[in-house]
Design a protein that fits this description.
Blueprint (H helix, E strand, L loop, with lengths): L6 H10 L5 H21 L12 H13 L4 H20 L26 H15 L4 H16 L3 H5 L6 E2 L4 E5 L5 E5 L2 H21 L19 H15 L7 H14 L4 H8 L4 H4 L1 H17 L4
Antiparallel strand pairs: 1-2, 2-3
């Protein structure tokens, strides 16, 4: 029996029957292959089987990941992959028990996401609009992407996956496919609507020039008329963020954090923000309330006479 027996079937089950995202499939494959590699050394020359694993072996795997200096978030995801895999094996009567069930998830470090304050956002869009006014296709597109990121708080993968039919500029809304391919509708603000209209005319012009080889389904395109790549989006956004503060560590995801933080600062309902972000659990959204509280503490410390 192959050491990796059952993994391919499990991943196919996730893809075909559970309809999980491609990113999750890639991560789970990597986690389970890492487990197989670890077990080869853990058991030495002796044969092992999924049925024979116990909690000690799973804990040993987590210790191995810790020695590799993986962060707690990544270790927790690996454990989740192992648990899901064993749940699948157990349901298909290939093992008697799930040894990963009794292994505790590593306690997550408190993580306060980086975000831009209001003056930084103003500078960001001033810079993007100035470039866009020059009329170059990539500059008009990059400005539209920035506006859409900040207007909706969507993830990078969601923005890249938008198709032309997903955007309705008349009713100012966009349909995105989030984690687990769950669809949600997000409103689009006035500034983003204008930037998207400007880009749409440039997009149509590019497709007319390119002809039949252009991608008429994807909304955001490269200069060659194909769906824009993840790297191209990251580079475009990072270029603007570096002009604001090169050493801040801000990334494309910081615009999502900024969207949520600014909404909550302005008094938006936490449940509404959860729905807009596409979070499955409200506890994930609550991290942004910590960001707001930390900012308020800083204001208090500076302003209060007896702080």
């Amino acid at each position: 029996m192959s050491e990796a027996y059952g993994i391919e079937e499990f991943l196919m089950h996730l893809e075909k029957e559970r309809d999980v995202s491609p990113n999750t499939l890639i991560a789970y494959r990597r986690d389970l292959e890492e487990l197989v590699g670890f077990l080869g050394g853990y058991y030495g020359v002796s044969a092992w089987s999924w049925q024979g694993l116990d909690r000690l072996a799973i804990r040993g795997f987590l210790a191995h990941l810790t020695r590799r200096k993986l962060n707690k978030r990544s270790i927790a995801r690996s454990l989740s992959a192992v648990r899901s895999f064993y749940k699948y094996l157990h349901r298909n009567e290939q093992v008697d028990a799930n040894p990963a069930r009794g292994v505790g998830t590593p306690k997550q470090d408190k993580y306060l996401p980086g975000y831009l304050d209001r003056p930084q956002i103003e500078l960001l869009f001033q810079s993007a609009e100035l470039k866009s006014q020059e009329g170059k296709f990539s500059d008009v597109r990059n400005c539209a992407m920035l506006e859409l990121f900040y207007s909706t708080g969507m993830r990078l993968s969601e923005l890249r996956g938008i198709n032309r039919m997903d955007i309705d500029l008349l009713s100012q809304q966009v349909k995105v496919r989030g984690k687990g391919r769950k669809e949600r509708i997000i409103p689009v603000g006035d500034h983003a609507q204008l930037a998207l209209r400007n880009y749409e005319s440039k997009r149509d012009e590019l497709l007319r020039t390119i002809g039949a080889s252009g991608d008429r389904t994807a909304f955001f395109l490269s200069n060659r008329g194909k769906r824009i790549s993840v790297r191209a989006i990251q580079n475009a956004v990072k270029g603007f963020l570096n002009k604001i503060d090169e050493n801040s560590g801000l990334s494309t995801h910081s615009l999502r954090h900024t969207f949520a933080t600014h909404l909550l600062d302005a008094g938006a309902d936490l449940r509404a923000v959860q729905e807009l972000l596409g979070h499955a659990s409200i506890s994930t959204t609550q991290i942004y309330t910590h960001t707001s509280v930390e900012r308020l503490k800083q204001v208090y410390q500076k302003a209060h006479p007896r702080a």
